[in-house]
Amino acid sequence: MSHSSTRINYDRMSRFYDLFAGTSERRFTGIGLQMLAAQAGENVLEIGFGTGHSLVALAQAVGGFGKVTGVDISKGMLHVTQSRLKQSGLAKQIDLRLGDAAGLPFNAAGFDAVFTSFTLELFDSPEIPIVLKECRRVLRPEGRIGVVALAKTDGVAVRIYEWAHAKFPDFIDCRPICVHKVLEEAGFRITETVERFMWGLPVKIVIARKLS
Predict the structure, then answer these.
(1) Given the DSSP bridges, would you call strands 188-198 and 201-210 parallel, antiparallel or unpaired?
(2) How much is the pTM?
(3) Where is pLDDT greater, at 130 or 172?
(4) What is the tens place of the pLDDT at every residue in 93-120?
(5) What's the mean pLDDT in 184-212?
(6) How many C-beta neighbours within 10 Å does residue 158 have?
(7) Which domains does the chain possess?
(8) What percent of the chain has pLDDT over 90?
(9) DSSP of 71-119, one letter per residue?
């Protein structure tokens, strides 16, 4: 799916996303946030912030001396998140950007951690290394990345899901990826992994460090 199609798709879904997808994904995202363990005073970037739940959790973790930045391709998601942040009282602590993770609008080595949940697998396979290269660029030395993603395995559920993705990409826009492989090839060292299942599909929750 092209970036413009993805943008239109998520703009359309933004007001209802939490009803049909957000609740099922949030449990896994929560595990990822716990594993990332953002600390007080840290500068954290979330890629694909969706409806903003993780941004709130990250802002609470880094506290008043920390900073959270979010990047998302969808203007609809941005508007939903802005409303959520106003209600949370954390809007001043969080910087929202409309943009593409394949070209992050930030200087090098500016973040202690990057977090992305159910987003990396939305990119076409040739683009995933580009996105991770950008993540590596904006991370400080030994900075960490947290990734929550559908994981590619040889299971029946994965094969059925991949078939459905190939047939109906506008409705099933993500697909399982080899999470460890893409991270290691991008110059990250895996430090922690948890596997869970969503509707029979494996979900990998991975923390990795930027190699020097």
Answers:
(1) antiparallel
(2) 0.89
(3) 130
(4) 999 999 999 999 999 999 999 999 999 9
(5) 95
(6) 18
(7) 3-150+177-210 (3.40.50.150)
(8) 67
(9) EES-HHHHHHHHHHHHHHT-GGGEEEEE--GGG--S-TT-EEEEEEES-
168 alpha-carbon distance from chain centroid: 22
Q: How far is CA 105 from CA 58, 96, 116, 206, in A?
A: 20, 12, 16, 24
CB atoms inside a 10 Å sphere around CB 186: 20
Name the burial class of residue 24, with classes exposed (0-12), middle (13-18) and buried (19+) by CB atoms within 10 angstroms of its CB: exposed
Q: 104: burial class by Cβ within 10 Å (0-12, 13-18, 19+)? A: buried
Mean pLDDT of 28-57: 96
Mean pLDDT score across all residues of the chain = 88
203: β partners = 150, 196
Within 10 angstroms of residue 102's Cβ, the number of other Cβ atoms is 15
Q: What whole-number distance in Å separates Cα of residue 93 and Cα of residue 40?
A: 13
